[in-house]
Design goal:
The structure is a single chain. A two-stranded antiparallel ribbon has the order 1-2. The chain has helices spanning about 10-25, 35-40, 45-60, 90-110, 115-130, 140-150, 155-170, 170-180, 185-200, 205-225, 245-249, and strands at about 60-65, 70. It folds into two domains: about 10-85 and about 230-249, Winged helix-like DNA-binding domain superfamily/Winged helix DNA-binding domain (Arc Repressor Mutant, subunit A, Orthogonal Bundle); about 90-225, GntR ligand-binding domain-like (Four Helix Bundle (Hemerythrin (Met), subunit A)), CATH 1.20.120.530. It is mostly helical and about 250 residues long.
Length: about 250
């Protein structure tokens, strides 16, 4: 695996994949490796591989086909500089998990009755959007922001707002969500939110922190599962080591 100061791990994996496509003589339309194979060969997590693939997809180098896999869309140019401005969706989720679980714990010690009432209203907004099968996620975002506001700390609110803005401006995050068609996960996330609210009402910081951590872990796992493009019949690739990929490890 390549390493470089200031680079994220998924960017290293993306560079390895570009090199493998170039050195392997792949042409436009050729099928590439499954994410499971890449993960095994490069000894990195599936979430890092997913971010690398999405990065290459945004660049137009690969085409992701649901239920079929990964294909070459355009061959990379040797020596071309690669964009590095975006943040991977799972890296962003990790930052949210660390920050928001701590915010929830602190909010449990500071929350007021008015805060709880506003959170209930946000959950009601979220519930109505789900029942209407609407694309409106404002209740979800509002609930998370209200928890930060319940900490009574404006700096924490601002830090949370920055993470949500990064998500809204991220082409990689948008591309990840384009792969998701089953929206049943929203009901499960609403249940997670209710558990967080219950912990806040009990003014239990440990329970609040754990409930928020579990929720964002559920978000991560859900996004991994629902955006998985690998067809199960190709699991045999796990037992075949492509020499080009092997050279990049």
């Amino acid at each position: 695996m390549n390493s470089g100061r200031g680079k994220r791990r998924y960017q290293d994996v993306a560079e390895d994949l570009r090199k493998a496509i170039l050195e392997g003589g792949y042409r436009v339309g050729d099928r590439l490796w499954t994410e499971r194979q890449i993960s095994a060969d490069l000894e990195v997590s599936r979430s890092i591989v997913r971010e690398a693939v999405i990065m290459l997809e945004v660049e137009g180098l690969v085409d992701v086909r649901k239920g079929s896999g990964l294909y070459v869309a355009r061959t990379p140019e040797p020596g071309a500089s690669q964009p590095r401005g975006d943040i991977g969706p799972f890296e962003l989720l990790q930052a949210r998990q660390i920050l928001e679980s701590s915010i929830a714990a602190f909010a449990a010690t500071m929350v007021t009755k008015a805060d709880v009432l506003r959170m209930r209203e946000a959950l009601d907004m979220e519930r109505k959007a789900i029942e209407a099968d609407s694309d409106d996620y404002s209740g979800d975002e509002l609930f998370h922001r209200l928890i930060a506001e319940a900490s009574q700390n404006a700096v924490l609110v601002d830090m949370l707002d920055q993470l949500w803005r990064k998500r809204e401006l991220s082409p990689m995050w948008a591309r990840l969500h384009e792969r998701i068609f089953d929206r049943g996960y929203r009901t499960r996330w609403l249940d997670d939110h209710q558990a967080i609210l219950t912990a806040l009402q009990c003014r239990d910081p440990v329970q609040a922190r754990d409930a928020m951590w579990r929720h964002l872990e559920n978000v991560r796992q859900t996004l991994l599962e629902l955006s998985d493009v690998d067809d199960p019949e190709f699991d045999g690739y796990l037992f075949h080591t492509d020499p080009v990929i092997a050279r990049t490890g």
